[in-house]
Amino acid sequence: MKLLLTACQVPFMHGGADYHIDGVTEALRRAGHQVEQVRFPFKFNPTSSIEQLMAHCEQQDFSEFNGVQIDKVISLQFPAYGVRHPDHRVWVMHQHRAVYELFDQQPNARQLEAFKSKVTDYDKRVLSRASRLFANSANVAARLRTYNGLTALPLYHPPHGAEHFYCSDDWEYIFYPSRLETLKRQSLLIQAAKHISAPVRILLGGTGGQEAQYRAEIEQLGVQDRVHLIGRFSEAEKYTLYARALGVFFGPYDEDYGYITLEAMLSGKPVITCTDSGGPLEFVRDGETGYVRDPDPEQIAEAIDRLYADKKAAAAMGAAGRESYTHHNISWQQVVNSLLADN
């Protein structure tokens, strides 16, 4: 089949979304289909630029191009899923969160009321036209149900390089690889360092807008000997950093999906997450594949101390996580089968 895949692109900002977009494209090609990507340039500000892109996407009829018939369109992102096609499959990675569950946290929320209404109306209108509607996770599906009254089927996909993750003896550190941003809440782990009794180090991987703030917080708390900002790392280093961890912390606020949970499970490592972390809660079972704690530094420290105090139990939770990943049948082949199924 000839397939078009629509998404967005923010120039010079790359991350997990790109792995997702390229991953499904390659999986569809391996399945024997002709696939082209159409990625619309996206600007977060001003909101008028988003409104213009919404209008542009909704005007696009992707049924054919220059006499070439398009069999199906698969769309992944707002507002690219507004394009039109008689057989339009939408797999929602996430919506424009600033007008949904994060709306009350916006500093200018009152000024955004009209924009919020336009986005929610757009989503309900264009997503209702989809021939099949999927969500990146149960958490994303729940948002569609809560805010738009739409039912989407959760469809999980593997992290990039899933086949390369492995498990090895731990080197007594907790690993948290992620962008250094407020929603990722590295601050919880930094503050937890003050309360950890065990001789465990904390490695925070990645870069981001909160790096200077986190460095200052580490100094202010006097935990420089325990908490280390290790910055960027290669793919090969990533696999080793997971493999040698005692456990992995992933405590963002209301995450859509979260590759980190799956990468930790593939590495046979227990995951510590929080009760309000969203996507990770679909995989982390408290006391079985990791620990679920309130977003409280002392509770997080207690969970880390428990991992260190009983490494045999920690290893067993990590192994259970790997088994759970297999049980969920997370694979690109399953994604392709689901996206293209007729019913």
From TrEMBL:
SUPFAM superfamilies: UDP-Glycosyltransferase/glycogen phosphorylase. Keywords: Glycosyltransferase, Transferase. One of its GO terms (molecular function) is glycosyltransferase activity. It comes from the Bacteria. Residues 172-323 form the Glycosyl transferase family domain. One of its GO terms (biological process) is carbohydrate derivative metabolic process. PANTHER family: D-INOSITOL 3-PHOSPHATE GLYCOSYLTRANSFERASE (PTHR12526:SF510), GLYCOSYLTRANSFERASE (PTHR12526). This is Glycosyltransferase involved in cell wall biosynthesis.
